[in-house]
Amino acid sequence: MGRITEDLIRRNAEHNDCIIFSLEELSLHQQEIERLEHIDKWCRDLKILYLQNNLIGKIENVSKLKKLEYLNLALNNIEKIENLEGCEGLTKLDLTVNFIGELSSIKTLQHNIHLKELFLMGNPCADFDGYRQFVVATLQRLKWLDGKEIERSERIQALQNFPVIEQQIREQEKAYCLRRAKDKEEALKNLREEDKNEAEERSYEGQSPFSVESKDHVQALEVQEGECNQKKFKDSEDDFEFWNKPSLFTPESRLETLRHIEKQRKDQEKLSEKKKKVKPPRILITKDGKALNVNDPKYMDTSLINVDVQPTYVRVTVKGKPFQLVLPAEVKPDSSSAKRSQTTGHLVICMPKVDGIITGWRPTSKSGKSTVDSRREPTNQRSKQIEKLEVDPSKRSIPDVANIVQEKKHRLQRVRAEPKIIPSEENPDFEDNPEVPPLI
């Protein structure tokens, strides 16, 4: 059942920037409200108030709404017109399809001197003999009744016949009040029986010998499924019987219908909960200590992410759902980092490898110091860099270790053999000096 709360009023005051103290129009229809409360304290500047199609049983807590001009209380459970004397600016009152049987209660509207339009159709009092004449004669400032204009001749005739009509109305009211007393007593009796049956059903459900955590898990689930099907069939029969059972149109019958709908909704929720199977816990690491690849979450939210880097695997937990990836090489957890990429928005985890130093290519020949020194400098620069594993979900699900660090491929070059200069025998004066470089 609904209640009038500050949050409810604010949600229906968007046209006024959710400010309620200066609100002039408020619509709270179809909210299953049972009682009028708080409105006269929070929204004193109201001019139009819509409360139709609720379960309000009494007009109350509106007397401080001095600026109220239009009040719509159609399709409620109101049985008497009261507590509207303080609404000094009220010009239109809609009480269509309620349960007003005390027609004489309209005399309280004589204090509302600006009231011009009144709707009472669909109420038990509208079926009384002399109903319209009684209202026209009682409220002499009224201009429209049930959408029909009150003519001057009609008012004169109603005033002439008022003593007789008033006596007829009192007799009909008395008969109606006796019938209502019997209806209330019968409705109260039925309500007690329903409460008793519900208590028995709850006690029967609590004695179920099976539980989800029992050893015979499969058998228990089968029994529960059978019980759910049985209960569903029984509920469908009860529902068919309820809607085809003849009943009087009373405030109690409206409340009974609402309770039946609410009970159906709760039973449906219970059945859906019972049908949910208990999922086994996710296995992340086997008994022999081997980590498994697991991907449970289907979305990534930084505020809900927990990253755990281990030497052989990395685990990302999002709302209790793990994403675990086995690494092809051992990494350093202490030097790892996880951050959101500023360009793509993806989660990027950088994990340095344990054997991260990569040695460059070195020539095997010892031809000279200049060649070794020239190639040693870029090798030393590369040795200072550490190879890292980067997990980027936009590119691939498994890191491509082969292309993490791309190095320039060195091609082996053949060194031409230096031609040995053999001293010529034809020149006897030739001397071989080793300090002189050879001529090419």
Q: Could you tell me the mean pLDDT?
A: 77
Gap between N and C termini: 107 Å
Instruction: Characterize the quaternary organization of these chains.
Output: single chain
**Molecular shape:** elongated
Number of strands: 14
Q: Count of helices?
A: 8
What is the alpha-carbon Rg in Å? 45 Å
The residue fraction in helices comes out at 25-40%
**Order of secondary-structure elements:** HEHEEEEHEEHHHHEEEEEEHE
pLDDT below 50 for ≥5 consecutive residues: which ranges?
A: 208-218, 357-372
Summing up helix and strand content along with how strands pair, one would put the structural category as alpha/beta
Can you offer a commentary on this structure?
α3 (131-138) crosses α5 and α6 runs antiparallel to α7 (251-275). Residues 208-218 and 357-372 have low confidence and may be disordered. β10 (313-318) and β11 form a beta hairpin. It is built from eight helices and 14 strands. The chain is of the alpha/beta class and 440 residues long. The protein has a seven-stranded mixed β-sheet, with helices on one face. It has a four-stranded antiparallel β-sheet with strand order 8-11-10-9, with no helix packed on it. A three-stranded antiparallel β-sheet has the order 12-13-14, with no helix packed on it. It is elongated and about 165 Å long.
Attribute tags:
single chain, 440 residues, alpha/beta, 4-stranded antiparallel β-sheet, elongated
Short summary:
This protein has helices at 6-11, 39-42, 131-138, 152-160, 162-206, 217-244, 251-275, 369-384; strands spanning 25-27, 48-50, 70-72, 92-94, 117-119, 144-145, 148-149, 294-295, 305-309, 313-318, 321-326, 337-340, 347-352, 388-391.
